[in-house]
Design goal:
Length: 150
């Protein structure tokens, strides 16, 4: 089993910080007040979680596109089509009330994990990819429960 590259792991974990921050400021009014005062209201609670989650789903479409380039023929065509799904999902589905948008974002990250599995199974994603993405996705989903249940 190939280890997750250290730089990828560090960047992946660092990428969780806005989700964790959004959940923390959604749960802790004092922290939210501090965050709003020093960073502004766009960087606390569900707003930061939903905005950042939308960006990450779009970013991941680019990652999957890169995996599709390693395939050929019909597999590549399918890969390219599937790779744009997370960005389109974010664009069309992450809107409305914070709770509804969070539910749709939650579903988008579950769908993304299935796409990660697909590209990993095809052999276009690295051996360590699914372990890496499953851990990150688990944290994201837990954090998104705050605006969903809030």
């Amino acid at each position: 089993m190939e280890p997750i590259p250290r730089t990828a792991l560090i960047l992946g974990v660092a990428g969780l910080l806005p989700f964790v921050w959004g959940a923390a400021t959604g749960l802790l009014p004092g922290l939210a007040g501090w965050g709003a005062q020093y960073m502004g209201p766009l960087f606390i609670g569900s707003y930061v979680s939903l905005t950042y989650g939308t960006v990450i789903l779009s970013f991941m479409s680019g990652v999957l596109w890169g995996f599709a380039t390693k395939a050929s023929g019909p597999e590549a065509a399918t890969g390219y089509i599937l790779s744009v799904a997370p960005a389109l999902w974010a664009f069309f589905m992450v809107n409305g009330s914070a709770g509804d948008a969070a539910v749709n974002l939650f579903a988008g990250f579950l769908g993304l994990l299935l796409l990660d599995w697909h590209f990993w199974k095809m052999g276009t994603a690295p051996d360590w990819w699914l372990r890496f993405r499953a851990g990150l996705t688990g944290v994201v989903l837990i954090c998104l429960l705050v605006p969903i249940l809030g």
